[in-house]
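In this supplementary section we document a worked example of the pipeline. Step one takes a protein sequence of length 403 as its only input; no multiple sequence alignment statistics are reported here. Step two produces a three-dimensional model, which step three serialises into C-alpha cells for compact storage. The input and output of this example are shown verbatim.
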Amino acid sequence: MGKIARAVIGAAYGDEGKGRTVEWLAARSGGSRVTVVRSNGGAQAGHTVERADGLRHVFHHLGSGALVGAATHLSRFMVSHPMKLAAEVERVAALGGCTRLTADPRGLVTTPWDMMVNQAIETARGDGRHGSCGLGFGETVARAEDFGSVLTLADLATPGLAGKLAAIREEWLPARLAQAGLDPKAPGPLSHARAAGVLEHYLEDCRRFLALLELREDGTLGQDEQVVLEGAQGLRLDRNYPEFPYLTRSNTGLANIVAVAEEAGIETIAPIYVTRCYLTRHGRGPMPDERDIAAYFRVDDPTNRPNPWQETLRFGLVDPAVLAADIAADILRVSGRTAITPTLAVTCLDQALGDAPVWLHEGKAVQGPRERFLDALTRATGLNVEAAFADAANVPCETFAAL
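The serialised model returned by step three reads:
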C-alpha cells in the first residue's frame, strides 16, 4: 500500500472546529510520530484547541496537534509571519507542547509594509469592508503574484535580505499605494511606513524566526512520520469561490493538499470535511442563511470575539445540500490526481438545545434529534457521518461527531 495522509478541511467559512479535529487525528495517530502540515493561509488563521483539563491555545503558525506532541511543517503554500511566531512558540512550549518546526523554503513571507497596506485599504473601505484580519496575508500574496515582488523563507537566510526588504519598501510600496489610490502621508496605518527602525526591527524578527525552524522541502514529507494536513479558512472562502471579493487569496480545499502530496509521493489523501452543526461567518460578505439562532443553539465561542477587523461572528443554519455541493466541487477540482477518500465531521453538537439541531431543507428550517440531522448530512453528501465517539479523551464525545 502506498503512502496515505490525513487532511482536515473547513466546509464553510472557517471556524468549523478544524483545530479540534486535527488534534484528535494527531493523538489517534501517535502524537509524536505525527507531523501536522499547514497547507494554506497564514498567521491570520486561528485554530483553537481546548482540552478537557481546561488547557487552551489558539494556533496561528504551529499545527493544532502540537499539544499532543506533533511536529509542524509549513508547506510552500503557507505564508509565514516573522513578527508573530516567537510569542506562539514560547506559549506552546510553556504548555508542554511540541515546538519542532520545519518549513519549505519556497513559502512566502509577510512584511510590516504588507500589514500597513492591508490595514490602510480595509480602513479606507469604510462600510464596504471585506472583513480582512489586518495581518497582511492577502497583500503578501498579491505582492508576489501581481507585482513579482517575492519574498520567501529562503530569502530570509541570504546576506541580501536587507536590500530586498528595502526594495519592497522603496519600489513595491509606492506602486501599490498608487494602484490603491492611497495617500502615503495620510494619518493611519501608513504613517510610520518609512519610520526609522522599522526595517531594522523586522530584520531582527526574521533572524529570530529562522532560529525557530529548519528549512525542509515538502517533497521529504511522509518518509518517517504520519502526515496530517491542516487547512485554514473554509471552502466558501476559497479564492475560486463565486463570492469575490469577500474571499481569501488561498486555495482552502484539496488543491494545495494534493500538490503537496504529489511532491511527497503520497498516493492517497483521506480528508475530513468539518462543519459546525450551525453556520458561522466571521467578517463581511454574503451568507446564504443569516439569522439569530439563539432559540436553537447555545453558542459558546471564546475565540471569535468581536474585533475591529472582522467585527461580530454571524450565524445561520446549515443546508446539507449546499454543503454537499461545495464538497463535491472541491473534490472535482483534483479529480484524476491523488486518490481521495473523504469523510465528514460535525462539531458543537452539544450546543444544540434539547439535543435537537435545526437545519435547512429546501429552504425551510427543520428541527429533529441529532441522529436525524446526521442522517440528512449523510444523504446529501454521500459521506460517512458516524455517531459521536469517546475514544479520544481530549475530544468530548458530546461535541463531536466524526468518521
